[in-house]
Design a protein that fits this description.
Shape: flat
Structural class: mainly alpha
Strand content: under 5%
Distance between the termini: 25 Å
Number of helices: 4
Helix content: over 70%
Radius of gyration: 13 Å
CATH architecture: Alpha Horseshoe
Largest sheet: none
Number of strands: 0
Length: 90
């Protein structure tokens, strides 16, 4: 909700809290989703290097837990983000 309102700081805080909770409960699928959410916040802020770091973690986790469909979606999203960012080095 906060991201759609342009309140990226609040959105970032909530996504980081979610990530911490997912890690504490060993919810690897939820952890991958949290990384994907954090990626979108940093991409919206133009922080492409940080966004890329978060974005690359989601497919790796998905692969580790055997969720091939999620891994494919994550890689596809990363592939779509690269051309959109052009020469920014994402």
């Amino acid at each position: 909700m906060f991201k759609s309102l342009g309140q990226y700081d609040k959105s970032n805080d909530y996504f980081k809290k979610t990530l911490a909770m997912r890690r504490e409960t060993d919810d690897r699928a939820g952890e991958a989703a949290a990384y994907g959410n954090l990626e979108t916040v940093f991409q919206s802020l133009g922080e492409y290097d940080i966004a890329k770091d978060y974005f690359e973690k989601a497919p790796s986790i998905s692969r580790d837990i055997g969720d091939l469909d999620k891994e494919i979606r994550c890689l596809s999203n990363l592939g779509e983000a690269i051309p959109r960012e052009g020469s920014r080095g994402l």
